[in-house]
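Support request, please re-run this one:
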Amino acid sequence: MKITEVIQTDFEALRTLFLEERQRTFSWLDTSEFHLEDFDKQTQGEVILIAKINDTIVGFISVWMPNNFIHHLYIDNQYQGQNIGTELLKAVIQITQFPITLKCLQNNKKAVAFYRRKGFIEKSKGESPNGTYILFELSKEIT
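Re-run finished. Output below.
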């Protein structure tokens, strides 16, 4: 696996991965509201790192650098459980400063468990149009 910064030719594959994984993950929401162009809108101005295996994009992470805020972390369903998310987090730690924060919908139980295993601490909860979210914070390296 190779982690690099996004380049223009990656965007088509990233749009598809983002749409498909959001539809799969957020099954309790009306996913008919999700569109390919959401990727461009939701990652505008963010640093995006991608994970590739044999030139296939298998995941990405996007970060709003002014706040060290992880906005998105998605791994293709076929490649989940192979430490790709962990490696993307490690790569982000190299380019940001602690603390690193993110919000995760409480109903996204798989992601909540992942972030807790990686050492993220729950700082607070809030409400969004998509349900209750947890504000997580990471203040140290992950293993």
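The mean pLDDT is 97. The two ends are 17 Å apart (CA to CA).
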